[in-house]
User: What shape does this take?
Amino acid sequence: MSNKVLITNDQNVVKVPSGLRILIRRSCNAVLDFEHFDGPAEISVTFVDNNRIHELNKEYRNKDSATDVLSFPLGENGEYDIDEDNGCKLLGDIVISMERAMEQAELYGHSLQREVAYLTVHSMLHLLGYDHEAGGLEAVRMREKEEAVLIQLGLPRTVSYTNDEI
Assistant: This one.
């Protein structure tokens, strides 16, 4: 049985390039493979605009600003509910601001596809329990995993990130 990646476009500010949905599915699958995830998984990915992600960030994280991506994990300590219809473990939801992704792609000098793949990989690691909020070694480890997966996808980093961004 294969993984299910459900993708919804709830914005009309940025045109979603052809092939982006396939890249998101490949990104999700690459993280699951890299992490040796046991069993099929279901992930929901939603594209929104800056206004919507701002609302969600304020409501769920008490941060009054737009952000690039939000992760809503459903599992806890490696335990996940199972969708009775398809047998998939329910990992959670990823919400990507396509506006912010476009802005960041321009800022970092790479394609929108590379930026969305990065945001997807980043969020997938959050859905699997990784966290970088406290910084330190866990943040470095998460960044290393992100880059390893992106290299596997043929999307290596083209700019250097600083520790300030971790």
